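Notes taken during the Thursday session

The instructor put the following on the board and asked us to keep it in front of us for the whole hour. The protein is Histidyl-tRNA synthetase. We were told not to look anything up and to reason only from what is written here. First, the residues (155 in total):
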Amino acid sequence: MKYARLTKEQFEELNQEFINFLATQSITADEWADIKTNKPEVAEQELDVFSDLVWEGVLKQVNYVEHISSQQMHLFHFAEEHMHAIAIKLSNGIDITTNDGYNWLRENLMNDEVEFQQAKKNYSSDRNADKFKLIKQGGSITKGELFKFFDNLIN
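Then, after some discussion, the predicted structure tokens were revealed:
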């Protein structure tokens, strides 16, 4: 397995897609029931293959990921040749995951207690794996509004 197995809830949401996936392999509902009962290792493999296919499709479309913790915000844009990261760090103990903390940050962007950094990094041999690693570490897929705002602010 290249990424991670989908959760039970995700499989339930993608039930029709999973049925179509099995159908492309000429596996009927009865055969699937038999496989689950008599060849659980084969069933596990099919679940893993389907999960990887779903992740590949999702990751191919991801352009922005953000990871926000109490004192830091890491924003990533996946450009064609490299990923661009913007990091915002607070040194004053204010928690930007709260409404009050985030509002403080918005009103005090040029305060000495707010530090901006940015970097560009080339992709490894597997661009989607690079994206998945950031998501697995707690990043969230976004439309990039925060990244674009801070990119305009500091560049």
